[in-house]
Amino acid sequence: MTRGRALGTASGRWARALGERLVEVVYPATCAGCGRRGCWVCDPCRAAVPLFAPPWCTRCGIPDDRACRCAMLAADLALLRSAGPFDGWLRRAVIAFKYEDETARATPLGDLLRGALEEVDGLDGLVPVPLHARRRRERGYNQAALLCDRVGATIGIPTLDVLARERETRAQVGLGAEARRANVAGAFGMAPGRNVTGLRLALVDDVCTTGSTLAACAAVLVAAGAVEVVAATLAREV
User: Which controlled-vocabulary keywords does the entry list (predicted)?
Assistant: First the structure.
């Protein structure tokens, strides 16, 4: 490595560290479970709803002490990993991050997601599930993209914005499995000029409920030439 590249890398790390420190000052950490200041989740809240841990199913990622969910996974998804159940402190953290503008949670939540992906090797890119343009403007950010950026910065895998939301859909909350599949049918496509031929990709989203959104996105990527698609979410309804 040349001296110029080494300095550039060090400067990048310094800038990221400074940015994270400023975020901590402006948006101080509070426990998603009980609101305690000074941490994103306190030990008692984490213990009350623990994260997923091996041994787990090698395909659906559900721990062995819970019912396997392979039947819900679309054929286009090679495997699915999630950090933990959509419950307790993790549920509240996801909701605050997604709907309450608490983007500072992207760092700790992204680190949880990285842990869920640690055993998955050979990825060429992280693909955020896209928002419709109107919803993206209203929210101001795509939470899945923020997660990708955090994970990618720590493990050296790029975020690839290759998917587009071509049709606005109603919120999936409150819909059953069949209604969710119908709601997202035809909603996604490849973004103009993007090429994923021969790539091994990880779809990233905040929550997996029935898997209909992940399935719809995976189908588009596989049809476009991706050699394999896996998925990772912060939380999973189990």
Answer: Glycosyltransferase, Transferase
Domain ranges for the chain, please list them: 51-236
pLDDT tens column, 12-40: 445 545 555 555 555 689 999 999 999 99
Phi, psi of 237 (to 5 degrees): -80, 125
- Answer for the pair 78, 232: CB distance below 8 angstroms, yes or no: no
Give me the pLDDT at residue 113, please: 95
Tens digit of pLDDT for each residue in 50-98? 999 999 999 999 999 999 999 989 999 999 999 999 999 999 999 999 9
**pTM attached to this predicted model:** 0.84
Q: Side chain identity at 148, as an amino acid letter?
A: C
Q: 51-236 belongs to which CATH class?
A: alpha beta
Cα–Cα distance between 106 and 33 in angstroms, integer?
16
Q: Which of 209, 204, 212 is nearest to 180 (CA)?
A: 212
Q: How far is CA 194 from CA 29, 34, 80, 127, in A?
A: 38, 43, 24, 12
Length of the chain: 238
What's the one-letter identity of residue 114? Answer: R
Edge-first strand listing for the sheet containing 125-128: 80-85, 228-236, 200-208, 125-128
Closest CA relative to residue 123, chosen from 197, 202, 58: 202
